[in-house]
Amino acid sequence: MPRQYTIGRLLDRLEAAGADNTLLANLEWFYQPLLEHSRRPIALHRELARDPARFIGLVSSMYRPDPDTGANSADEEANEESASSRAFSAAWTVLREWRTPLPGSVNGHLPTTEDMLRWVESVREMLTASDRAQVLPIVLGDALSGAVADEDGTWPSEPVRDVLEILGDADLDEHLAIARMNQRGVTTRGLYDGGTQERALADQYSAAADRVRDRWPRSGALLDGLSRSYRDDARREDRSAESHGDR
């Protein structure tokens, strides 16, 4: 029996038995290189949502200090070594797969605006203190782009919309939209389907923008931008299908 299957089953049993989540998260991180393709680190994702310091640890495994901060050479060398290690790959995988729960969540529940804002502000302070302020919009955009939506299906969910309005950070808005688009991944379609899929997504984001723009104008603008981007993609796919039809 493969080792990854056995370890994954043991972790599942520990969770079912009510083991401490921090202990489970530590075990998932330790075994992440082995379990990368067989088991999602669900306890570790809960810890990331609860504890901004845990999130900072993974981000610091991936990103060196900002080049213009005057970080000493020893620090730069240490981070270069870290970036080329297995820790980089493990951290990247864990953060890439983190879609739920949202930052600020405790025990998997939807966070309040206050809890999410507290998490975000802690991350901003700690990353700035570690001379990594330049990656803030990127890593926060990824963290806030999770799949959690309102009961009516509106994405981003209300606490995310509130935080975007409070922060008023255009770079964060942009990277949140980019992260959302990147989540779509690879698509498949018939040779002559054109941009049907993209138009459906454009309509979905346009409708969501209409629902939120009065109370959350930044989110409305973000969703409008996603809608426009997918309409552009739809036109490109239409032209591609037409060119195949002309052959």
Descriptive notes:
It is built from 13 helices and no strands. Helix content is 67%, strand content 0%. The mean pLDDT is 90. It is mainly alpha-helical and 247 residues long. Helix 5 crosses helix 7 and helix 8 packs across helix 10 (158-167).
Quick summary of this structure?
The chain has 247 residues and is mainly α. Helix content is 67%, strand content 0%. Helix 11 packs parallel to helix 13.
Largest sheet: none
If you compute it from the alpha carbons, what radius of gyration comes out, rounded to the nearest whole angstrom? 20 Å
Helix content: 55-70%
Report the mean per-residue pLDDT as an integer: 90
Counted beta strands: 0
Distance between the termini: 52 Å
Which oligomeric form is depicted? single chain
**Strand-residue fraction?**
under 5%
Outline, from the CA principal axes?
globular
- Helix- and strand-based class? mainly alpha
Number of helical elements: 13
Order of helices and strands: HHHHHHHHHHHHH
How is this fold's topology laid out?
Blueprint: H1 3-16, H2 21-30, H3 32-35, H4 42-50, H5 52-62, H6 73-83, H7 86-97, H8 113-129, H9 136-144, H10 158-167, H11 170-182, H12 196-212, H13 217-245
Task: Note the main attributes of this structure.
0% strand; single chain; mainly alpha; 67% helix; 247 residues
